[in-house]
Design a protein that fits this description.
The complex is a heterotetramer of chains A (about 110), B (about 250), C (about 600) and D (about 90). Chain A is an all-alpha fold and about 110 residues long. Chain C contains 24 helices and two strands. By secondary structure, chain D is mainly α. Chain D has a domain of about 55 residues. Chain D has four helices and no strands. In chain D, about 50% of the residues are buried. Classes of the chains: A mainly alpha (about 110), B mainly alpha (about 250), C mainly alpha (about 600), D mainly alpha (about 90). Chains B and C meet through helix 1, helix 2, helix 4 and helix 8 of B and helix 1, helix 4, helix 5, helix 6 and helix 8 of C.
Chain lengths: ~110, ~250, ~600, ~90
């Protein structure tokens, strides 16, 4: 269990990038970008995990309970917002590109542009 | 490059990079052995210092509140960017919404589906409101609440009531709400500056009961503004895309 | 006064939100909107100038929300301003002010968002320069990125901008996610996000696997932003199509911010932990010089004015990386001075290209040949700025050459100078051809002609004359470059060298941030270097300018002189194969490039 | 080899087993998102992937992130992508 979660992280990055490189459809590429980014959540929460720790909410647990790292969770939250923002913007580019070019194949987009 | 060549270039790089990445990851203390000290200290001091029992919210809105300012403006910039990119261009006009209904990737809107969706909208907005206003205590906060409220609005569309959606969220109002949310957050920090405190320092009295809405100072206030910003931003995002499905270029049909 | 640190970032953000909140109000009061944005940008310049004055004696730290570190552990976010970081932020703010002035009534439609996005971009730049927290750095990096993607696609009626924005956003996002992974990795080891604290931790764990890999991953996003080979492909696509005032910011300061980020990250976090300075320096030098050469070659064969300038930016970025990569105070001094000069002259050049586009409706060097004669002032500014790009005294760029001469190994210097001659020669060729009709137009190239034809006017009205608000900022930027160059005779170089020495002193940085120490560096104690303008710098500058002019004239009169210059269709095909515009290719190269760099760094350090 | 074995052997208890299962599911989910190329189906797979991630984060004791991932990753983004596809498909046909 020492490194296993991090192997999964590498796998997610690799498969996401593979998708972007081989994809012939912009929307699919954007989805693959989401996958690439999702690896960072797993990594962040993975490095902040503490064996036997509980969630960092002291509403009904005593103050000295062993909790997992709250900082990485805050960072992951920021990361989720970034993901949503970038994805939305990219999708709007894709829509507009489709209107202009009539296709969403990156290869065709590049050759149509000249 | 041909697709095959591209794949080889990528595979060569990916194998190397994955090995390199794993090499670095193997240098970590190992899963479940977070070494600290940042998280440990925050977990110890957050409740006494901020009176918020939800430590993640305390980090987001207080210790690392300045990050969140940037984060909100990332969303703000993205919504503004979408409005720019998807603006109505010359030669486009809005088609009537009726004939689009068949186009959606959903079962054709039966009355039952519509009723269920409508029934869900109200409670979802309420849940969102509750989430947005309890940042200091629970796993919640302005961001989650805002997204949930925006999702409620999107549900309105799924129920086929795009006109309701438009009436409830006219563009100028959502724009203004979004700006007020983002500006309110920045402004809360500036109030601290006006009081000769460091930017974003808490300037409201903290109550005595840890976890209560009124007891964690600016955390609840900031969470509220974030909620406004996020709700409006996602409504704008969804609204822009919805409008796109109705936009038709002149002569096309 | 300390509050200026926070205000420099939050005031533009507040104004951006404010103008969006009352958007309908500005519909009939465009001038008020323009004025508000210009005044905000100018006020940021003033604030940053005050900060520069404040930090002359030593770096200063500002803790947000008042969470000061105790026992060497930071729990809040800090801004750390030194002369270099505040100086670069000031350059950025100056360019934003110039660009906002240039775009006075420039865009007819959805103007509010343009102003808001520019102000957000400004805030992102300032935050990126000043922050002392690695995750905060990532946040401002992303904010700058998102605003930049949106600004690139500002004219969605056209085809190019969408393509450019898509490639830009994809490449940069992937780079940014790698950076974030690196941040998570170093956090997993050190449990810290404050750069000084990480630096202290890394120094205690020298050359550990974690440090090496995190270094490269964090660098990934910055290398993409800085358009270093092989991460540079997006730049030409994006810079060529963004609205001209936005290009000024992209080429003038955004690319340089990537380089600044590399320097910041290296010296505040990794210099102690990595060691092996010589090997790393050689690697950075090689990559930088290679980027310089590739950028120069592409620049030379380009005839789309904005793309030409974009490729010259890639070339200069490579040279700058080589300068920073020397990892010595002299190299960093040269790079810092060069960034100032380059930002000003490149800004002026892009604004001139924008005026050409406004007046003549095209940026195709062939079609424009001799057409620019009526634009006398613009032509003059363009030529002056391109001579400045070549490094002709007294433009600020020439100051840098003295430092590079002193610091760089001979082979690298020779290649760098050759690159400078080729790029500025190409820019001069375009200027002399367009504005004075000298020689023959460049070869026809159907693909480039099509690209250039795509770029039609950005403006809708008033094509018959050049408004003052367009030409004045361009002339001011060129003038500022000369003015800064003249400052070089009064000890600017010494001041920058002192700043560079301070920037590279990791121990002093850690003491300042974590322990509130105030470290001052007496300049005289540090390695001897050309304190003021050396004759070598002047001579090199003049030689470079002469070389560029000669090179430009040779290419313009190649037919009449019967020079054996001809087109190489094979080379063209290969070049186009790389610069294909297909994002899949760019990502594949990015991954391969990172893997190679990673392998090399691991070999060097371990 | 022993290092490899210990890397995969859950060391203690049910929590670990749950985390390992979810991690494997997430990896499989990511692979599925990338490999499924049918336009609408890939969005559904993405939504499921978001759900799996949210569950994993719950197992990592991060309810805050779970809530965000659930709302953003498995509802909002898929909905937004569906809208895009609807717009795009209309012109493709």
């Amino acid at each position: 269990m020492q490194i296993f979660p991090f192997i999964i992280v590498v796998w997610i990055v690799a498969i996401g990038l593979y998708g972007i490189v081989t994809s012939r459809h912009l929307v699919h590429q954007i989805i693959c970008l989401i996958v690439v980014q999702s690896s960072t959540y797993v990594l962040l929460l993975g490095v902040g995990y503490l064996n036997g720790g509980t969630a960092p909410y002291f509403f009904d647990i005593p103050l000295h309970t062993r909790v997992v790292d709250p900082v990485v969770q805050a960072l992951a939250l920021t990361d989720v917002v970034v993901e949503a923002a970038v994805t939305a913007l990219l999708l709007s580019f894709a829509i507009q590109a489709h209107k202009r070019f009539g296709t969403l194949d990156p290869q065709e987009l590049a050759s149509l542009r000249g | 490059m041909t697709p095959a060549a591209r794949r080889w270039v990528f595979l060569a790089g990916a194998v190397g990079l994955a090995a390199f990445y794993l090499f670095g990851l193997s240098g970590l203390p190992g899963f479940g052995h977070y070494p600290g000290p940042y998280g440990f200290i925050i977990s110890r001091v957050a409740v006494p210092q901020t009176n918020a029992t939800g430590v993640v919210s305390a980090v987001n809105f207080e210790y690392r509140g300045f990050d969140t300012v940037g984060e909100e403006f990332i969303l703000f910039a993205a919504a503004a960017g979408m409005a720019v990119v998807l603006r109505q261009l010359r030669g486009e006009h809005e088609g009537p919404p009726v004939d689009e209904a068949a186009d959606r990737d959903l079962p054709p809107g039966s009355e039952a589906v519509r009723m269920v969706a409508l029934l869900f909208t109200g409670p979802i907005v309420l849940i969102g409101w509750w989430l947005a206003s309890h940042a200091q205590a629970n796993p919640s906060g302005g961001f989650q609440g805002g997204v949930v409220i925006a999702t409620g609005f999107v549900l309105l569309y799924l129920s086929g009531e795009f006109r309701v959606f438009k009436r409830l969220s006219p563009a100028d109002v959502t724009d203004a709400v979004e700006a007020v949310g983002a500006g309110g957050f920045v402004g809360t920090g500036l109030v601290a500056v006006a009081l000769h405190l460091p930017y974003l320092q808490n300037f409201l009295p903290r109550g005595t009961v840890p976890g209560a809405v009124s007891s964690s100072g600016t955390i609840a206030l900031i969470s509220f503004f974030v909620g406004l910003e996020v709700t409006a931003a996602f409504i704008i995002v969804a609204g822009e895309l919805l409008r796109q499905t109705l936009l038709v270029r002149g002569g096309e049909r | 006064m300390d509050q200026l640190f926070a205000l420099a970032v939050t005031v533009p953000l507040a104004v951006a939100a404010g103008i969006c909140a009352v958007r309908p109000f500005f519909d009939r009061r465009r001038w008020l909107l323009d004025l508000a944005a210009i005044v905000t940008a100018a006020s940021v310049v003033v604030m940053l100038a005050f900060i520069m004055v404040r930090v002359r004696g030593g770096d200063q730290v500002y803790w947000f929300a008042g969470f000061r570190p105790s026992h060497g552990v930071a729990i809040g976010i800090d801004f750390e301003a030194g002369s270099l970081s505040a100086g670069l932020a000031t350059v950025g703010a100056v360019l934003v002010t110039a660009a906002m002035t240039f775009s006075w009534r420039y865009f007819e439609r959805v103007a509010t968002y343009y102003h808001a996005l520019m102000l957000i971009f400004l805030a992102g730049m300032t935050g990126f320069c000043l922050t002392g927290d690695i995750f905060d750095l990532f946040v401002w990096f992303e904010l700058m990125g998102v605003a930049a993607y949106a600004l690139t696609a500002y004219r969605p009626e056209e085809r190019g901008p969408l393509q450019g924005a898509l490639n830009f956003a994809m490449s940069n996002s992937i780079g940014a996610y790698f950076s974030l992974s690196g941040i998570a990795l170093i956090y997993g080891g050190s449990g810290a996000l404050n750069m000084a604290q990480i630096g202290a931790w890394a120094s205690r764990h020298p050359s550990s696997r974690l440090v090496v890999v995190a270094f490269l991953l964090i660098l990934a996003g910055l290398l993409v932003k800085a358009a270093i080979l092989p991460f540079h492909f997006w730049l030409a696509d994006a810079h060529a199509v963004a609205p001209t005032p936005v290009c000024v910011l992209f080429s003038g300061v955004m690319v340089e911010l990537g380089l600044y980020g590399i320097a910041r990250v290296y010296w505040s976090m990794f210099s102690g932990g990595l060691g092996h300075q010589q090997g790393l320096s050689r690697l950075l030098l090689a990559v930088g010089v290679a980027t310089g050469v590739v950028g120069a070659l592409f620049c030379f064969r380009e005839r789309h004015l904005k793309r030409l300038l974009a490729f010259s930016t890639i070339s200069h970025s490579g040279i700058l990386l080589a300068g920073i990569g020397l990892l010595t105070p002299l190299g960093l001094t040269g790079a810092a001075v060069y960034i100032i000069g380059h930002a000003l002259v490149k800004g002026a050049l892009f604004l001139c290209a924008g005026i050409v586009l406004h007046r003549l409706g095209t940026v195709d060097e062939v079609r424009l040949h001799g057409q620019g004669r009526p634009l006398r002032v613009t032509g003059l500014v363009f030529i002056v700025a391109s001579l400045g790009l070549a490094g002709m005294p007294p433009a600020a760029t020439f100051l840098a050459e003295g430092w590079f001469d002193e610091a760089a190994p001979g082979w690298a210097l020779a290649i760098a100078l050759a690159c400078a001659v080729v790029t500025s020669g190409a820019v001069l060729r375009a200027g002399l051809g367009v504005f004075y009709g000298l020689g023959d137009p460049p070869f026809e190239d159907p693909r480039q002609a099509q690209e250039a034809a795509e770029e039609t006017g950005e403006t809708e009205t008033g094509r018959h004359r050049t408004p003052l608000t367009m030409i004045v900022p361009a002339a001011m930027l060129a003038g500022a470059a000369i003015a800064v160059g003249c400052l070089g005779f009064t000890g600017l170089g010494t001041a920058v060298q002192a700043a560079a020495v301070r920037f590279q002193d990791q121990r002093a940085y850690i003491a300042t941030v974590l322990h509130g120490a105030r470290v001052s560096h007496p300049v005289a104690l540090y390695p001897p270097g050309p304190a003021d303008v050396s004759p070598v710098a002047v001579a090199t500058g003049l030689a470079l300018a002469a070389g560029s002019v000669a090179f430009a004239l040779l290419t313009l009169y190649r037919r009449r002189l019967r020079l054996p210059i001809r087109r190489w269709p094979r080379a063209t095909a290969i070049a186009e194969g790389f610069q294909s515009g297909v994002i899949n290719d760019y990502v594949a190269w990015l991954v391969l490039g990172l893997a190679c760099l990673g392998g090399l760094i691991a070999l060097i350090v371990r | 080899m022993t290092a490899l074995a210990s890397a995969f052997a859950p060391s203690a208890g049910l929590a670990d087993a749950l985390q390992v299962t979810l991690l494997l599911l997430v990896a499989a989910g990511a692979t599925a998102v990338v490999l499924v190329r049918a336009r609408v189906r890939q969005v559904l797979v993405l939504s499921v992937y978001g759900l799996l991630l949210a569950l994993l984060f719950l197992a990592f004791q991060a309810p805050d992130v779970t809530l965000s991932e659930l709302t953003v990753g498995s509802v909002l983004l898929p909905a937004v992508i569906l809208l895009t596809l609807a717009k795009v498909r209309k012109r493709e046909e």
